[in-house]
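Q: Predict the bound structure with tryptophan.
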Amino acid sequence: MFPDRVLSGMRPTGALHLGHYHGALKNWVRLQSEVECLFMVADWHALTTSYDDVSIIGKSTWDMVIDWLAAGIDPSQATIFIQSRVPEHAELTLLMGMGTPLSWLERVPTYKDQIEKLSHKDLGTYGFLGYPLMQAADILVYRANQVPVGEDQVSHIELTREIARRFNHMYGREPGFEEKAEAAVKKMGSKKAKLYEELRTRYTQNGDDEALESARALLADTQNLSMGDRERLFGYLEGRGKVILPEPQPLLTESSKLPGLDGAKMSKSYNNTIALRETPESVTKKVRGMPTDPARGRRTDPGNPEKCPVWQFHQVYSDTNTRDWVVKGCTTAGIGCLDCKQPVIEGILAEQKPMFERAQPFLEDPTLVRNIVEDGCERARKLAGETMRDVRESMGLDY
Ligand code: TRP
Ligand code: SF4
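A: Predicted complex:
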């Protein structure tokens, strides 16, 4: 039907930290060589909570894009773009908003959570309520079928699916749909047409799922159908209209194995981060200052790695040999905590080295970054424009 396509986004929060890398970016880097990927700076989403302080959005955006590039997002494989440079996102948000019940938005779990958590801000706004609707438009405007997100965003993908389903149901029935579908059946050739009709009857009348699967496979390897006819026949099969906006799936990224320096979640607001491009001196100082198992008050006191955040860093950065050395040395007081931290420091520095190298040309010449993003926005606008043509047509706006 539609080609595999990944879309994901981050709000521009400025320089990223290693938690972002292990929680999301590393996964994006892997995906970009497997499937078409679009990575978006969600600057309008940032405005839903920071509408009263817009001064840092620009700088945060460029810093974040440089970090993406530093982490290995490759503009020759993936499309990097900025949401606000693709006005189609706003148009689709507006059009889908016509039929989206308020209650759907009010019951999204992040809505009440965030209002409570950010109680110092007035989030009783139209824009903030519309946050997940805008996110749905981000995804659907590219007909992306896979969305890498963390656990906290799954409810937004679920809402996206409901909005797409409702849209297809309301607007996927073009006038004369049945006639057009029947005509498309004939184009399959008499043998395949007969088989399709049989399978369709078995599914629509008896709910035979195997028949549905077979009919889908049949359509998939019928070559002489146009995109439009193929879509109609998929829809006709299930007794629904044409799919204009396909329902996406979340690609759940397992939560970052890398905690913050204090063992809690790594987050700027907890002041426990290591930036992606933190200097080696600062990395060394921060790791050396990490809290350890409190039982090791003195060098001669044995400890337990399970009670120590440094151990979690070893899970990410050390091989089995080193980890065995840690367990033995910690529990017998054979090593000191500073000895134990040294391989972690080296692991982080080794991970960061290629990131610094990749970032260097972009720091020296910011127009390189601007050009990459300019190209990405252009490509995004082209893809989004194609979807919007179908959306306008199906909503009767093509007069
Ligand atoms: N809401 C996402 C977050 O806070 C960011 C985002 C905006 C996004 N639009 C998106 C993520 C579309 C995935 C797809 O992390
Ligand atoms: Fe933590 Fe290592 Fe010290 Fe044990 S030796 S408490 S694991 S830093």
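A: The beta strands are 5-10, 36-41, 79-82, 146-149, 249-252.
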